[in-house]
Design brief:
2 helices; mainly alpha; single chain; 0% strand
């Protein structure tokens, strides 16, 4: 169950790294971390904005 949750959380960054053919290792880890933080920050800000405006 936990592995499935972790896989879905890391999925967006992992897909982008695969598309750009980034090899496994430290560079892939940091790029995936940055991409996931970037994506999930945008999602969280969008949800917070929607809650602020529509409630």
């Amino acid at each position: 169950m936990m592995n499935l949750l972790v896989r879905y959380i890391l999925w967006p960054g992992d897909i982008i790294c695969t598309l750009f053919k980034v090899k496994e290792g430290e560079s892939r880890f940091f790029l995936r971390l940055y991409l996931n933080l970037f994506i999930y920050t945008k999602v969280a800000v969008g949800i917070a904005f929607a809650l602020a405006v529509y409630t």
